[in-house]
Fold this sequence. Notes:
By secondary structure, the protein is of the alpha/beta class.
Amino acid sequence: CFFKLPSDSFKYLNWCDLEEHDVRGNQLLCPRVREAGPSEEELFFRGEEHTLKKRKQVTEAEKWQKKLQENWENCAELNLSYQDLGDLYQVENLNRILRRLIRVEKLWLVDNSLTDLSAIRLPRCKELNVNKNHFTSFKQLPKIPQIQHLSLSENNITTLSGISALRHTPLESLTLKRNPCEFQENYRQLVFSSLPNLKTLDGVPQLPEDWSPPKIHFLSKLCTIL
C-alpha cells in the first residue's frame, strides 16, 4: 500500500509560496526550479490532484511581491545544477531566472541537459560551469562578455568553430575535456591562437609548443651563373 508523505502536497510549490518566512533568492545557493507545476489535467492523469488544494488565484500585488522576494537580480553566486528538467515548465522557469541574473558572477548549470542558451545574457559573469550538458557549438553559449573561467567538459562540441566569439573576453581558463573537438589536429594550438588572453586549457598551463607561428614556405629559386 502506498501512503502519501505529509510534504507531498508541497512538491510543486515555490519557496515564495510558503508562509511565514522572508528568505530571498540571493540567499539561496542551490534552489530548485519549481514554478506552478504541471497543468491540472496532467496532475489528474499523474494521480497528483491532491496538490491542487494548495493552489489559489494570485493577485498582481502578490506577483510583484513574489518577484521582489525572489530577488534574482542581486544574486552574485548561484548553483542551478542537477535540475532534472523533465518538464517544459521547468525549462521555461530556468530561462526566466537566467534572464534576471544581471549581477551574477559565479554560475553553475551542471548536468541540466541544456542545448541552447544563446538568447541569455550574463553581463557580469566571470565563472561559468556548464559541464555535462548537450551543447554542440560555442554559438549556443550565453553572452558572457566578462568571463574569466569557463568549463564545458562532457558536452558534444565537435568543432572549434565559433570559439572566436570569446576572443575579446578576459577568458583565462577553459576546460573542454571529453568533447569531440579535443581530438582535432593541433587542438591546443588552435585554441590558444583563437583566444589571446587564455592561460590554461583543460587544466594545463600554456606550453611553448602550444604557440606555433604559421609556417612560411619559401620557394627556392635556382640561379644560374654564366
